[in-house]
Amino acid sequence: EKGGFEYFMLKEIHEQPKAYRDTMLGRIDEQGEKVILPELKLTPDQIMNIRNIQIIGCGTAYHAGLVGRNVIETLVRIPVETDVASEYRYRSPIVSPDTLVIVVSQSGETADTLAALREAKANGAHVLAITNVVGSSIARDADDVIATLAGPEIAVASTKAYTSQLIAFYLLGLYLAEVRGTQTPEAVKEMIQAMQALPEQLDMMLEQSESIKAYAEQISHHEHLFFIGRGLDFAVAQEGSLKLKEISYIHSEAYPAGELKHGTLALIEDGTPVIALVTQESVLEKTVSNIKEVSARGADIMVITYEEHAATLLKSVDQVFVIPKTLPLLSPALAVVSLQLLSYYASLALGNDVDKPRNLAKSVTVE
Ligand code: F6R
């Protein structure tokens, strides 16, 4: 059942290339030029009228929503908010019939997300669910469903469900952009081609997964550490931090790289591990100057970036982990996998039950 892997989590990490392919299957035309989402009831007219989008989820699904916000705002230029479901419900969200609410849930049974969905529907919004379980309560209650085809996820720590949710957001973002005409056909095609390359790029990364093991063992001796990044790198940092806390029980915090000096820098001491994500090239120089700030305070820095920046970055950091080159919007789908592996190997080094972390359940059906 674990297919030769020691834990379900590692098996599921390795299933991601397939999950990417399966989630894209039948949703891209034969020429590789357009996204087609035949399952959507949302009409082109309704899409033209969307005024705002709200994305709701819990935990890892919320983190996928943070990426989704950036993707949709960039591609479609519609304002998007992302909320944690238990907060959304009680903040009197501003919803109208022109609001598209997207709920994200692997299990489709999370109580807070389901309640938020019902709240949004009662307020007149069109609700689209991105879920991995098509027969779930959330899928049943939503007006529309985009199924992620990651297959059953057993490990409590979500991996392939999260990355398939990213693929769903890329597809949805492109589809909305096609309907609203906000991207050129060339730009759409370029992104589709880059998406189709992801499974193979991920296979390459997974072949080198041992290289992150030594670093994971090194950080497993620390009590706290930081993840930093800007833009989508910050979104991935938040997911990486959650994953590490969940299964290794090492305390960590994800911080926007530019925000450290507004307080958090006080916690950086000699030897504090800092993991910096540097894939967003439009802000690369800015992140590098933040890396220098933490380095000057003695932090032990590991950077996740592209090959072409490795040599330069190695002048100011201790270690570099290289990921395959892709478009800025797509980098989370690759970068996060190195953080999944990092938390897996840290948890393993500490002798924890990787698949069943203490105090946590796979599906949270209480509020
Ligand atoms: C983290 C994790 C949780 C879930 C969250 C939402 O690895 O698994 O944070 O993501 O409980 O669950 P779903 O997606 O089933 O609504």
From TrEMBL:
EC number annotated for this UniProt entry: 2.6.1.16
Catalytic activity: D-fructose 6-phosphate + L-glutamine = D-glucosamine 6-phosphate + L-glutamate
Entry GO MF terms: carbohydrate derivative binding; glutamine-fructose-6-phosphate transaminase (isomerizing) activity
Name of the top EC class for this enzyme: transferase
Domain of life: Bacteria
Cellular component annotations (GO), alphabetically ordered: cytosol
SIS domain: residues covered: 43-182, 215-357
One BP annotation, GO: fructose 6-phosphate metabolic process
Keywords linked to the UniProt accession: Aminotransferase, Cytoplasm, Glutamine amidotransferase, Repeat, Transferase
Active site: K362
Subcellular locations according to the entry: Cytoplasm
Assembly and binders: Homodimer.
Role description: Catalyzes the first step in hexosamine metabolism, converting fructose-6P into glucosamine-6P using glutamine as a nitrogen source.
Name assigned to this protein: Glutamine--fructose-6-phosphate aminotransferase [isomerizing]
Organism per entry: Paenibacillus crassostreae
Gene name, Swiss-Prot/TrEMBL: glmS
Residues of the full protein shown: 244 to 610 of 610
